[in-house]
UniProtKB/TrEMBL annotation:
Its cofactor is Mg(2+). PANTHER family: CITRATE LYASE SUBUNIT BETA, LYASE BETA SUBUNIT, PUTATIVE (AFU_ORTHOLOGUE AFUA_4G13030)-RELATED. Belongs to the HpcH/HpaI aldolase family. GO terms for molecular function: lyase activity. InterPro entries: Aldolase/citrate-lyase_domain (IPR005000), Citrate_lyase_beta/mcl1/mcl2 (IPR011206), Pyrv/PenolPyrv_kinase-like_dom (IPR015813), Pyrv_kinase-like_dom_sf (IPR040442). This is CoA ester lyase. Residues 6-224 form the HpcH/HpaI aldolase/citrate lyase domain.
Length: 294
């Protein structure tokens, strides 16, 4: 099933007002954060507020994700217990280094009796995780695996590698592509990291366009003002939808039966283009359904 993840918004678990507001925002998903945005002394309160918010519901079709602290942190035991109790759609775990972390996280959730439907998202934000990305992605092929999505952390990667984060992120592109290829090899979704300057709409739009072109499914956000831009850029355009319908119709003609490639609008298209067209239309339908669900 295709699920839109154009815009996935981080919300501090310690901010009750923000959690309430998340019910009315047009984001495709919401990440209830227990890590970076929550001070250590506020983490118990944040767990309680997240549990209450998820129990109350009202998030419509939005994907509900809890970001815990790292599995090696002193907060992990309580965070993972919350995930089991609150039953979000997914848990996002930071500071992954390799497949052994995926196995340990899965074992902890299974030990707690967490619902098998809770998927595992992981932050790819360390140099070691980038180096071992294919091994990490391969964990999704293990029977009973929860691994479903990567979330890239460019700022953390920049900190550890000293690759400078300049406009256009040219130094990061090879790393991004390596992660995208690994994700696609094992059927994993992949989201780009946040854009910190939420007042810079033009810069944010450019980065969304780059992420879309590099193969990301969407972008994680730090401010509600970024939602509309991300939703628009990661949504198929009317021209793309018209072409998708045209290609599918062309292959449905009797004279195209049995052919691997046909002439369409002055160029040759293959059946793989028809497959891409069907996914484009399916994504548009999924977006429409999500928006109607509120």
């Amino acid at each position: 099933m295709i699920r839109p993840r154009r815009s996935v918004l981080f919300m501090p678990g310690s901010n009750a007002r923000a959690l309430e507001k998340a019910r009315s925002l047009a984001a495709d998903g919401v990440i209830f954060d227990l890590e970076d945005s929550v001070a250590p002394e506020e983490k118990p309160n944040a767990r309680g507020q997240i549990a209450q918010a998820l129990a109350q519901g009202g998030f419509g079709g939005r994907e509900r994700v809890i970001r815990t602290n790292a599995a090696a942190s002193p907060f992990w035991q309580d965070d993972s217990a919350l995930v089991t109790q609150a039953r979000p759609d997914a848990v996002l775990v930071p500071k992954i280094a390799g497949p052994e972390d995926i196995a340990a996280i899965g074992a902890r959730l299974d030990q707690l009796g967490a619902d098998p439907a809770i998927r595992l998202w992981v932050m790819i934000e360390t140099p070691l995780a980038v180096l071992r990305i294919a091994e990490i992605a391969a964990c999704a092929a293990v029977k009973g695996a929860r691994l479903a999505a990567f979330v890239i952390g460019p700022n953390d990667i920049s900190l550890d590698t000293r690759i400078r984060m300049k406009p256009g992120r040219a130094g990061m592109v090879p790393l991004f592509l390596n992660c995208v290829v690994a994700a696609r090899s094992y059927g994993i979704e992949i989201l780009d990291g946040p854009y910190s300057d939420f007042s810079d709409e033009a810069g944010f739009a450019a980065e969304c366009g780059q992420a879309r072109d590099l193969g990301f499914d969407g972008k994680t956000l730090i401010h509600p003002s970024q939602i509309e831009i991300a939703n628009r850029i990661f949504k198929p355009t009317e021209d793309e939808l018209a072409e998708a319908r045209g290609i599918i119709a062309a292959f449905a003609r009797p004279d195209a039966a049995g052919k691997g490639a046909i002439r369409y609008e002055g160029r040759m298209v293959e059946r793989l283009h028809a497959e891409m067209a069907r996914r484009t239309l399916a994504m548009a339908d999924a977006i429409e359904s999500l928006e109607q669900a509120g």
